[in-house]
Amino acid sequence: MLSDERKRKEYDEMRALFGSGAFRRGARGGFDPSDLFGGFQGGGGGGDRRFGGAGFSDIFSSIFSGGGGGGGGGRARGPARGRDVEAEVVLDFGDSVRGVTLPLSLRAPGVCDTCHGNGAKPGTQPRACPVCLGSGLVTRNQGSFSFSEPCRECQGVGTIVDEKCPECLGTGGVTKTRTINVRFPAGVGDGQRIRLAGRGEPGVRGGPAGDLYVLVKVRRDDLFGRSGDDLTLNVPITVAEAVLGTDLRVPTMDGAVTLRVPPGTPSGRTLRARGKGVARRDGRVGDLLVTVEITIPKDLNDKARDALETFAAETSPPPREHLDARVRRYG
């Protein structure tokens, strides 16, 4: 790049041309495009002498190409890459947490089995394009500029098929049903896309295949929810369990655990079962978050009602003093 002293000198001289008005403005003050093509020609077609007769495009190519040689040849196109394909898979909640491998059937373009993707009739082979010599690109000169474009003879592929495959008609691909096994890692989330490189549509005439993107949808579970790497679970408890405390047996994705509900637990409190959530990629595992909800019985028999009234009489009044003061104030 510009660390080369010769290239730096050329670049600085070119900047000086811009600053000194070597590129003229037209009668209306606009940029004169003829300067781009003739400003460095010096009237004699030999280029600006300060740059050794080089044209404008040659100067930029010399400074920014990172090397010398070749002149005007772009990167070869070759056979075109296949398109990417997207599919959608619905997973059970448990499979998304633990991970699963499932077969996925796709009806999409695949490599032609008759010609094996080269597009030629069996017994024949594609030949190199005589115009671009197999590069897929044709370089054209336009004054001081040169540019490359896809070869029209071979449509940028670089090869020509004289006798086309009767199955794919020279494209190298046919539509067919194929089944592939897809591994969904543990902890895959709803809306996540999994990329399978090279499993998309095949390229034209043996070009590289595109990629397959699998969009994951996860079914809702009857019990568990998910928050990041943690699983969530709501568990109802009675008033007596909340007041007196209890040992709570709850399910997990791989068995059951016992959690201690301490006496005086309010409704909505969350208990944590560590290591019972979703496995992380680094090997750690999330937790199971259990939220307890106090349920109120709708129907009480006489014995239960008497016991509850006795309980109410023996306990402190409800902590509503701040509300009672406001009620007395407004009568």
TrEMBL record:
This is Chaperone protein DnaJ. GO terms for molecular function: heat shock protein binding; unfolded protein binding; zinc ion binding. It comes from the Bacteria. Belongs to the DnaJ family. It comes from Phytohabitans rumicis. SUPFAM superfamilies: DnaJ/Hsp40 cysteine-rich domain, HSP40/DnaJ peptide-binding domain. GO terms for cellular component: cytoplasm. InterPro entries: DnaJ_C (IPR002939), HSP40/DnaJ_pept-bd (IPR008971), HSP_DnaJ_Cys-rich_dom (IPR001305), HSP_DnaJ_Cys-rich_dom_sf (IPR036410). The lineage of its organism: Bacteria, Bacillati, Actinomycetota, Actinomycetes, Micromonosporales.
